[in-house]
Amino acid sequence: MSNPDSELDRRLRALFGGLDTGTDFDARLMARLRVESQTDAAERAIRVRQEERERYRKALLGLQSWRRSMLRLLTLDTLGITLVLVVVLVTAWPDLNRDVLNISLQYGPYIATLLGVLLAAVPVVGMWAEQTRRPIRLLASSHRFTR
Amino acid sequence: MELVRAERRDEAIAQLLPAFRRKVFGLAYSFLRNREAAEDVTQDVFIKVWRALPRFDGRASVSTWIYTIARNASLSALRARRPQSSLSDPEAMEALQAIDPAPSADAMVDRAALLRLVDQLPTKQRQVVMLFYVEEQSHEEVATMLSMPVGTVKTLLHRARATLSAAVGM
Fold first, then answer.
1. How far lies A96's CA from each of A82, A101, A105, B87, in Å?
2. Residue B141 pLDDT greater than 70, yes or no
3. How would CATH label the architecture of B90-168?
4. Which of A17, A48, A119, B67 is most buried as measured by Cβ atoms within 10 A of its Cβ?
5. Read out DSSP for B17-85?
6. Which residues in chain A have Cβ-Cβ distances shorter than 8 Å to B115?
7. What is the helix, strand, coil percentage profile of chain A, to 5?
8. What pLDDT is stored for residue B92 in this prediction?
9. What percent of chain B has pLDDT over 90?
10. What is the domain range of residue A101?
11. Digit-coded pLDDT (tens) for A36-74
């Protein structure tokens, strides 16, 4: 008498034991992988280009922000404060550097004139900077001629 | 892992394929009960494995990782295709009969009857039965494939066997 479980096992094994994919499965998969591999390389190249573009944009933004902050510093107040500080320093501590004092006494009028010119130039430089400010171009775009 | 580190994913897949193709196909088939759909899912699983290989950190075993991908892919495919087919559908019968292309008339009747009985089992029992008999897998392997404890697999298999034995009059 056969063991019922082993008989059932045998029949189930016969039913499912040979379950497998079609014969061309591996070939189809490898073909798909080749396509994927090419797509993968193309996507990687696009990603690298995008990263480079982003890096360039950030660098450009950084540069523009530096220029703006420099222009912001270039005000009458800043120059006035600088002048006062220089005068205070030179007056309060003449023994520190006799050469500086001598130069300032000797060239005082010229220095004052130069400062005056600089003070007068500040609004002009500011106006020029405002007028020449242009939107940032991330990449050199091709020129299109339209009629 | 060395092949992956060496950026030789195609070779890694070529090594994984013979070891896991039937297992992944069996797992997908146990969910989908449709040969074509299971093959499509199996292909997708290996494509996903190929894509994800560089990110595989080796914390889990390769088999656990692949079975997880296979389970998720099968469940997604199952959700996407409605209504569900059954093992006793003509298509499913044909697919399973393709295993033995020239069975006798009696064997075909037996096989069809047994398929219907397996199909009527609760989902988990049916899956365990199918996976256990595909490639003679161990309880542990089936447990890994279905992400369930070994004890549960044994219990489900025992119940399924009891039901099937009673039904076929053994």
1. 19, 9, 15, 100
2. yes
3. Orthogonal Bundle (1.10)
4. B67
5. HHHHHHHHHHHHHHHH--HHHHHHHHHHHHHHHHHHGGG--SSS-HHHHHHHHHHHHHHHHHHHS-SPP
6. 15
7. 75, 0, 25
8. 56
9. 43
10. 74-133
11. 888 878 888 899 999 999 999 998 888 888 878 777 777
Burial class (CB in 10 A: 0-12, 13-18, 19+), A143: exposed
Higher pLDDT: B26 or B90? It is: B26
Query: Cβ contacts (< 8 Å) between A16 and chain B: which residues?
Result: 26, 96, 129-130, 133-134
Chain B residues within 8 A of A33 when measuring between CB atoms: 10, 13, 46-47, 50
Radius of gyration of chain A (CA): 39
Widest CA span of chain B, in angstroms?
57
Type of residue found at B148: M
Residues of A whose CB is below 8 A from B50: 33, 36
Considering the domain boundaries, does residue A12 fall inside one? Answer: no
Among A13, A45, A69, the domain-final residue is A69
pTM: 0.60
**B41 to chain A, minimum CA–CA distance in Å?**
11
Q: What is the pLDDT of residues B9-57, one digit of tens each?
A: 888 888 899 999 999 999 999 999 888 999 999 999 999 999 898 888 8
Q: Any idea which fold B2-80 has?
A: Rna Polymerase Sigma Factor; Chain: A (1.10.1740)
Would you say B49 and B126 are in contact if contact means Cβ atoms under 8 Å apart?
no
Instruction: Select the residue of A9, A19, A26 nearest B99 (Cβ to Cβ).
Output: A19
Search chain A and give the residue with CA nearest B107. A11
CA distance B25 to B42: 6
**Is there a domain that residue A56 lies in?**
yes
Q: Where are the domains of chain B?
A: 2-80, 90-168
pLDDT more than 70, % of chain A = 80
